[in-house]
Amino acid sequence: LSDYRAQGQTIGHVLVDIATPPTGGLNLFNLYVALSRSSGRETIRLMRDFDQKHFQAAHTPELTREDDRLRIILDEQTSEWWQALNVRRSSSVQTSPLTPLVRGWHARRA
Q: DSSP letter at 36?
């Protein structure tokens, strides 16, 4: 099972081969997917020793740019959500027991 096909799945027991594939390369994303598919450290087995340089490598520029792009979108959506929440809350007479916590968190973010 490739790391691509394993994405999004939780697998009971995982046998991982951290070796450079015959085609392409190995990056931090591949390693993360391969090592995070099991439900815990006790259910992961490595097939062979591996070169630690794989874990010390920098992300590819493309992945870094995509991460930055997604972070901007998330920040915009989060800001819009908070604004909508404030509009609804200010037009409502009732308050939630969590209101002081939300206000405190929102004030820290500003």
A: T
Side chain identity, residue 96: S
Q: Region of 8 please: left (phi>0), alpha (psi -120 to 50) or beta.
A: left
Torsion of CA 74, 9, 34, 30, to 10 degrees: -40
DSSP summary character for residue 1: -
One digit per residue, the tens of pLDDT, for the chain of length 110 reads: 566 666 677 777 888 887 777 777 777 777 777 778 777 888 888 888 877 777 777 777 888 899 999 999 999 999 999 988 887 776 655 555 666 665 665 566 55
- How many angstroms separate the CA atoms of 59 and 106, rounded? 32
